[in-house]
Design a protein that fits this description.
The structure is a homodimer. Chain A is of the alpha/beta class. Helix content of chain A is 36%, strand content 15%. The first copy, chain A, has 11 helices and 14 strands. In chain A, helix 3 packs antiparallel against helix 4, helix 3 runs antiparallel to helix 7 and helix 4 packs across helix 6.
Amino acid sequence: MEYVETKFVTFCQPPNELVLKSGFKLGPITIAYETYGQLNKDKSNAILVFHALTGDAHAAGFHKDVKKPGWWDDMIGPGKAFDTNKYFIISSNVLGGCKGTTGPSSINPKTEKPYGLSFPMVTIEDMVAAQKLLVEYLGIKKLLCVAGGSMGGLQAIIWAVNYPDLMNSCILVATNTRHTAQQIALHEVARQAIMSDPDWQNGDYYGKSIPVRGLSLSRMIGHITYMSEQSMEEKFGRKLIGKEKLGYDFSHDFEVENYLKYRAGNFVQRFDANSYLYLSKTLDYFDLAADYNGDLTKAFASAKCSFLVISFTSDWLYPSYQSKQMVKALKANDLDVSDIEINSSYGHDAFLVEVEGQSKLISHYLARIEKQNTHGKR
Amino acid sequence: MEYVETKFVTFCQPPNELVLKSGFKLGPITIAYETYGQLNKDKSNAILVFHALTGDAHAAGFHKDVKKPGWWDDMIGPGKAFDTNKYFIISSNVLGGCKGTTGPSSINPKTEKPYGLSFPMVTIEDMVAAQKLLVEYLGIKKLLCVAGGSMGGLQAIIWAVNYPDLMNSCILVATNTRHTAQQIALHEVARQAIMSDPDWQNGDYYGKSIPVRGLSLSRMIGHITYMSEQSMEEKFGRKLIGKEKLGYDFSHDFEVENYLKYRAGNFVQRFDANSYLYLSKTLDYFDLAADYNGDLTKAFASAKCSFLVISFTSDWLYPSYQSKQMVKALKANDLDVSDIEINSSYGHDAFLVEVEGQSKLISHYLARIEKQNTHGKR
């Protein structure tokens, strides 16, 4: 078995820092990334994929001595939707993350201490600007496709809008163009949970106790929003845990309670609380049409590539009506758009678990894009 | 202006304690209650109303020196849905609450200290058993109606099923017959938020610092679930608070963030964290058909009265499909059932704010019940 490894590359050494949307300058910026498959001779088979809120660069394959594959391994690999026999897939950890790319837990070279809350706020535009440096570094002039779900979709949108000449196609899964009041509210509760944990210490907890309780609560809220009412009911219903009847006390009674605890327990071991704060804010700040008085058609006017837009019926975190608004705006710009709402009970998680339906759609779509690309060049 | 006052009555003096569903014996039990309107000569015009999770006995009218009326004042009063010119309305604080009825913040006479976590777990059945003592104490043999929304609806259901001869009718608003995995999960996050607050101190915080942070988080989560995505979007959208542009820091940017903070701030001043723990568990434990293998028709077999069932299209906390299942089971028992799903964007809050539609329905329904009742007696 061939293992994959995360690689690292550093850009923006002072005084050549990256100027963020906020005006703040950030550098150096290290990017953690992985690649799968082989880049072809004319470098025309590269696909850049983006992870969601708590993902990382490890999208596919296995790291040595780790049992679990990358987060999108169902979709990336030989013969899979993103077929590594054909395509060269690039995945990187986002700016502000905590898995190798510069973020609040990174050492600030000026102070030789972790940034903590002195890390600047990053936007989707900033994440994408950093990814562009990586793509240039890899010698790729034009991507065959940019693709992502959830927060990954926001990155794909900004690629398509800010660098319209740098890709042939864009795949958007379970995503949207602006965060609604409900989405902001859910994030705000998660942030308050972290920030009200005494161990958070205004973000200066590195090397001390981490804010386990607050981060756990954030993740529990998250998990409820990733599933649907139906999928929770089907998976757990009112099943009791290891007892015949209700306990009439405050120990756990129901399996769903234990599930939340278990998932939160895993999460706090792998994710940085400050990164959660920053990235949730990044999502809340996202509003593609903000500079266009809310006119989504104008906001997409610069885009040139082909689009595939996928949403899921039971996704209430990124409801499919948001995808439909996006599709309408793309079509109003005379762009090539394929869109589908997949019938699924899995809620927002569907973008990770509805593998079969998505695989067919994506592999056929990519084959078409590849063909058009080859024809276009002749 | 005539003010209303909360009255108090105490039952179950040892050794005559109330035997709870858990088997635990509880006594004495003080019940805080209010009444509105006049009991008629033959005591046939009494209506018992029930409050929701964080409500209290003060359903209507004004307390002296308090600007805000009772929580259902839009519906209870002269000429209103529950017309105090015609009916005698009784409202009491639930067992386990913190507004005058015995609950975890009450003094345990055996220890002369607040119960805290030594308070026994209470069920909807226990709440209703305590209310029955109050109704008997008031000399009422049969209620014209039992009525409630949300957790209040659960109490109305148990009245109708456990004491079928004691009412002519039952009004159920935005309620259900069992809590789903999602509802349990949302409550569990709220409980964990309270219990992970260091000030909670295993429930023994009375006279010390109260768990403000945990209780605030619980309420923030609650408020998101009480509204709908649409009502949050209409009320707040992405409106910024007192600033022209995003702050790029962790202060609040959006009005919805401030709203949650404001509502949570009010809540922690008026509600006891342990009561929140107990009552959320009471809700999670509720499963009407648990003893009937999930057969809702059998679970309602003892009911005799007429039913009015109201639900709201955008309520995702107590979705209307749950009301429809209930209606189906009631009809299968050949009961007189009127049901309506009101078109509303207000989410679960609709049961408190959709006054006009509900008022018409309820006043007509009660007039019919009253008429049948009078005819029946001739």
